Amino acid sequence: MRHGKKVNHLGRTDSHRKAMLANMATSLIKHKRITTTLAKAKALRTYVEPLITKSKNDTTHSRRTVFAYLKDKDAVTILFREVSEKVASRPGGYTRIIKLENRLGDNAEMAFIELVDYNEIYGKTAQTEKKTTRRRGSSKKKATPTTESKEETAAKAGDDLTIVEGIGPKIAEVLATAGIATYADLAKADAEKVKEILTEAGSNFNTADPTTWAEQAQLAADGKFEELEKLKAELDGGKKVDE
To answer: Fewer beta carbons within 10 Å, N or C terminal of the chain?
Structure first.
C-alpha cells in the first residue's frame, strides 16, 4: 500500500526510473509529442517542466544542470535554442496530456503528452478566436460616433441667442427652457408671447423689450451677421434709438 506516498515509482528502481524519464524527456524535446501510458505521462510532466523553465535562463550553469538530467547534448541544444524561445512568454504549463483508448492486451490506460506551443491546430484556433474578438470590439468602437449623435448634440446645444441685442445668458436660459433655443425658433416667436414667457420667469426680466429680437434672429438664421451688426448698432438694449 502506498499510504500517501507522492512519487509513483512505476514499478522500477530509482536508477531505472530516472533513466527512463530522461530518455522520455529527450524524446519529447526532440519530437515534441510522444505516446506512453497515462501513469508515465504524468510522471514525465513533473520531470520535464522544471527543465523547460530552467532553459529560459541560458547560462552555462543552467545548461550543465539540465544536461545532468537529460544526458543528451542534442536535446539540451534544442531545448535552449528552440524550445526556450517558443515558451518564453508562457509562465508554466508547457505540456498537455490527452487520454487515448486503453491498450490492447493488458488494457493499460494510454495517453500522449506534447509540448503545448507546438500544436499548430490548437494554436491557429486560439489566434482566430482572438482576432475575431478584436474585430468585434473595434467595430463597436467605430460605430459609436454617428451622424445622428452629432445632430442630436447640436440640437441640444442650440444657437447662441446672446448675440441678439437685449438677450443675456439668463434670458437665453429662460427662452431655451420654453422651447426657443435656435435663431429660427426666436424668429418665428411672437414678441408678445416672448414677453409673457419673460414675465412668468420673474420680475427681473420685465425690463426686456423683445420687439426687435425676431428681426435680429432672422438675420442670424440667414447668416447675415454683417447686417445684424449694423442693426445692433442702431439699437439700445434691444430697442431702437429713435423710439
So the answer is: N
Strand 95-99 to 110-115 pairing? antiparallel
Please return the burial class of 171, using the count of CB atoms within 10 Å of its CB with bins 0-12, 13-18 and 19+. Answer: buried
The candidate with the shortest Cα–Cα distance to 231, out of 243, 221, 219, 222, is 219
Cα–Cα distances (Å) from 61 to 34, 53, 69, 94, 197, in that order, read 28, 14, 13, 22, 89
Q: Kindly report the pTM of this predicted structure.
A: 0.51
Domains of the chain: 14-119 (3.90.1030.10), 153-237 (no CATH)
Q: What number of residues does the chain have?
A: 243
What's the pLDDT tens digit per position in 38-74?
999 999 999 999 999 999 999 999 999 999 999 999 9
- The 3-class secondary structure across the chain, one letter per residue, is CCCCCCCCCCCCCHHHHHHHHHHHHHHHHHHCEEEEEHHHHHHHHHHHHHHHHHHCCCCHHHHHHHHHHHCCHHHHHHHHHHHHHHCCCCCCCCEEEEECCCCCCCCCCEEEEEEHHHCHHHHHHHHHHHHHHHHHHHHHHHHCCCHHHHHHHHHHHCCCHHHCCCCCHHHHHHHHHCCCCCHHHHHHCCHHHHHHHHHHHCHHHCCCCHHHHHHHHHHHHCCCHHHHHHHHHCEECCEECCC
